[in-house]
Each structure stands twice: as structure tokens, then as C-alpha cells.
Amino acid sequence: MAATTGRSCLQYLIHLAQDNLDFRLPEIKSLLALRGKPFRPCENYKEKTPFWVLGELCEEDVHGIMTRSVCAKSAFELWGHGKTHCELKTSLLKYPKENMSPYTQKDSTYRINVYTFNKTLEFKDRIERIDALDYLSFEGTVNLKTPQHTFCLLEDYGTDPNNIPDQPLYVYFGRWIADGQRELIRSYSVKNRHFIGNTSMEACLSFIMANHAGVKKNDLVFDPFVGTGSLLIACSHFGAYVCGTDIDYNTIHGKGRSSRTNQKWRGPDENIRANLRQYGKEKTYVDVMVSDASKPIWRMGLHFDAIITDPPYGIRESTRRTGSHKDVTKPPEDYFGESHVPVSMAYHLSDIFADLLTFAAHHLVMGGRLVYWLPVHSPEYCDEMVPLHPCLKMISNSEQTLSSHTSRRLITMEKFKEPEESDALVDMSEPCYSPYQGHNAFREKYFSGVNKRGLKEEEDKMNINGE
């Protein structure tokens, strides 16, 4: 890192994966916020493209992003760019020599890669691209296997696979700095997890949620609808202490029917603790317990650094809370059995989200974040449907399409003030803080657009979760 001392005019190129497009910007912004840095895109910035040029950063900042991001593939110190190779040459020749020289010395080894987005080049074409860079003053020795420095020529052919231009729309050249954490998607795959359920959150989205929340080492993270603990696993990877609750006794205790093919019942060690043990994160596991999210069980002085959750939507997991519509009757005086456990009753989505935001307002640290999924009926969605709270500000609202007529929004909110008695009056007087009752019909609206033949395919595709 000493080579970067005194170097100026640096810009950095971030190469992003072309999936989960709506989640990329909030993730990068959140990771920059952890380092106290702003998001400063440079010229030609377009959110949906795979290449972003960022300024006002140092190399340490870029490393910090890439050690966590699952949306970014690679990062480069940008040396030159242009709409054509001719413009690229002009840009490279203008780049300060003092910025290049630490990586072009005679005693160094290097390699140049060629990467094309939305087009495949033949090997001979790649060699021609590299040979055309002979105007660069590389004095070191080429080493294709273990070079000290790696450089990359990146060509962008647009995002339309049905209309690929003959020449690239834009060209970049830079020094490779680091790769992102796309490997986590495979190594934490639910397919290989010890304990899973019907609604276990996929690894990629779990890590995206943890990044949106800005989870860091020694944080205390809570999931009030913990399920099989997928979100706890992602947070523990970043060094946070994790805990959660769920109303489902069998899930919390790892009992009942298995969700695996060709396995009828869960094994004796299928539980959330075993999942964290599988990834070497058991030391960050605080505990989980059976609890109704609608009931207050925590002392008011307890605060979490982040609350990350995926409430049930009533599709694969029912929305329920403890209680009964029947009149409560006293047991006989001579009854000495176990205490009565109330039966479950409907827990409307509007109430779930209202309770969740109120809980976050009281139990997040100042600046702590709440990250959760909000299911919506796409044709009628508008931003006014997103629940609000006087103590929480909106950070991001990203969409994941589930079906032709439904989607879910990943909502990130940050606590900016402590609750006051006046906030209860605001809730009643301000319409924007009133729970949107339309969420309660999500189940009916979801199934209304699915015919019997396509029901199973649609349900499998959407990956509705209860965690």
C-alpha cells in the first residue's frame, strides 16, 4: 500500500454483476457509509450498467467495499477510458506518470487481461487488443500465472443481447485491485446447509440484506421472524452477534417434518445453532427463542445495532399470533395441569409491519437500521404504501419481481430519533403513518393471478420467505 502514498487524481472502476440490479446501489452506498465516505459517481454514470466510475475514494475504501459486496465482481484503479480505443489511448497518455510508475518498473511482473461484457471475443482478437497497448511504458516481465500486478482492458457492448454492436460502446483500462465476494453465494448455498426450511432465504439476498443494514463486527443483530436462521448466518459472517425469535416451536427446536427431499423427519441436530456451527460462526450465536412478535417481551433498555427480517406473507408460511377469538374462561379450581397456551389467530400484514416499525423505533440504537421485505401487488403499488414511522427515515426501497403481478420491496430504514409521547399523537393525526390495510389482501391478490396449471411453477419461482 505504500506505493499509493502521494498519488493523486485517482478514480476507481467498479464492475458489477448484472443480477439483483435494484439492490446494487443501496449495497454500495451502505458499504461506503461504513467508512464515512459518500457515493460520488463520475461521468457517464448509469445505474443499470455493469460499470461504475467512482471518485473521492482511496484504495483502502475500495478494498473495504470488495471484502463485503456480493453485487460487485471486481474493482480497478482506472487509468483511462473512452468511447473508442482511440479515445482510450488519448486518456491513458494523459494519465499521470507518477501514478503508473510504481507498477511498471523493470523488476516487476504483470499480466494484461481482456474482459468484454455482452460479447465474446476470439483469442486472436484479445491478443490484438493487448498488442495495441504497446504505447504504455511497461518495463517489467510478463507473468501469466503469478504476476505482481494485473491490468485489465474492459469493453462494454451494452446490455441488449439481441442488439450487440460491432464496436464497444465504452472502453476502460485499469489496474486490478480486488474481487468482490460472489463466492459467498456458492459457499453459503442453502442446498448444502445443515438445517433448512421451506422458506430459507437464499445466500445472495441474505448477504445483501446484511450489507444494506451495515452490519459489522461485534454488532448485535436481531431477527423477530428468524425461521431457520439464514439472515443470522449472513450477519455472523461479518462478525455480528446474532439472536432471534419465531412463533413456530418446531422450527426453533428443529423438530417436525423435514423440508428435504427423501427425508421425512428432521434429525436430532437440525437447528439454527448447528447451521452457525457448520460455517464456524457458533461463537457469535446468542440464542433464539419461541416468541410472538406482536407481544412485548424485551426490557426497554435493550438495543440492537440492526434488525433484519423477512416476515411471513401468508403464502408458504401463515401469518399468525397467539390469542383466541373465543371468550377466555377460567380453569376449574381443582385444575393443576400446565398453563394454558393460547391458540393462534390471524396476524394481519398491516399489523405486522406497524408492530415491526414500532419495535425498531424503541429497540434500535441511534443510527441503527431496520431491513425487511414488504410484499406488494404490483399493479396497485405506490410509494405511499410503504409503512413509515416518525423515528425512522427511509434509506432505500428496492424491488424484486416475484411473479407477473406481485413483487416484494426490500426496505431499509434508519433510526434518527428516540420515541416520544408525542409520536403516538402523530401516528393518529398523520395519514402517512397509518398502516396500509391493502397489504392484508396480499395472499388473495397473489393467487388471483395464478391459474391451477401454473400455480406450483409460480410458487417455486417466487422464493417467498418467512425468515
Structural class: alpha/beta
The gross shape turns out to be elongated
Supply Rg: 26 Å
DSSP strand count: 16
Distance between the termini: 41 Å
The main sheet orders its strands as 2-1-3-7-6-4-5
Largest sheet: 7 strands, mixed
* Helix content estimate: 25-40%
- Unreliable residue stretches: 1-5, 451-455, 463-467
Average pLDDT reading: 87
- H/E order of the elements? EHEHEHHEHEEEHHEHEHHEEEEHEEEHHH
How large is the share of residues in beta strands? 15-25%
Helix count, DSSP H or I runs of 4 or more residues: 14
Commentary on this structure:
- The protein has helices at residues 21-34, 59-66, 85-94, 97-100, 123-131, 183-187, 203-212, 230-237, 249-253, 272-278, 349-363, 421-429, 442-448, 455-462; strands at residues 11-16, 51-54, 72-82, 109-117, 141-142, 149-156, 170-179, 220-223, 241-246, 285-290, 304-309, 320-322, 344-346, 364-377, 392-401, 406-415.
- The longest helix is centred in the last third of the chain and has 15 residues, at 349-363.
- It contains 14 helices and 16 strands.
- Strands 2-1-3-7-6-4-5 form a seven-stranded mixed sheet. The chain has a seven-stranded mixed sheet with strand order 10-9-8-11-14-16-15.
- The chain is of the alpha/beta class and 467 residues long.
- α1 packs across α7 (203-212).
- It is elongated and about 75 Å long.
- Helices cover 25% and strands 24% of the residues.
- β4, α5 (123-131) and β5 form a beta-alpha-beta unit.
